[in-house]
Amino acid sequence: MRLTVYTDYALRILMYLALRDDQLATIAEIAESYKISRNHLMKVAHQLGVAGFVETVRGRGGGLRLAKPIGAIGLGEVVRYTEPDMAIVSCFDPVGESCAIQSCCVLKRALKTARDAFLEVLDGYTLSDLIQPGARLTGLLGISPVNEAASAEPLP
């Protein structure tokens, strides 16, 4: 089983935004950090907004931020949303195809069980889990620590 690039980018966007800790981030920043296409990210970010995972702020100084707390965004939920066709083999969704052994096929049952187990494992993880260790990830992605601006201000 292989997840699509679309799902990969969706997870990367969500992880980046989680590391930003409610600060706005732009598509350009995210694309630059991951060294991936800005155009591809725009489509994915839009769909994450439609799904309610991401809030988009338009205009100058706008950007993206998470629409839910990081602990409320489940990995399985995101994968199910971004991978609408989880049919591992054609008999899972037999549109126009028939199989001579479908009524007693153990292979179909085994693959369905494996797919369900895969998703069940993902259901055990949230976005909060994916951003550990946070300090190392922010460093690798070139994200400034959230309280950096606050620590630069002189104390009274």
What this model shows, in words?
- With 156 residues, the protein is mainly α.
- The chain has helices spanning 5-19, 27-34, 38-50, 75-82, 106-123, 127-130, 134-141, 148-152, and strands spanning 54-57, 63-66.
- The protein has a domain at 5-85 and 126-146: Winged helix-like DNA-binding domain superfamily/Winged helix DNA-binding domain (Arc Repressor Mutant, subunit A, Orthogonal Bundle), CATH 1.10.10.10.
- Helix content is 51%, strand content 5%.
- A two-stranded antiparallel sheet has the order 1-2.
- Helix 1 crosses helix 3.
- It is elongated.
- It starts with a helix and ends with a helix.
- Residues 147-156 have low confidence and may be disordered.
**Subunit arrangement of the protein:** single chain
Indicate the low-confidence ranges by residue numbers: 147-156
CATH class of the domain at 5-85 and 126-146: Mainly Alpha
- Strands ordered across the widest β-sheet: 1-2
Task: Give the CATH topology of the domain at 5-85 and 126-146.
Answer: Arc Repressor Mutant, subunit A
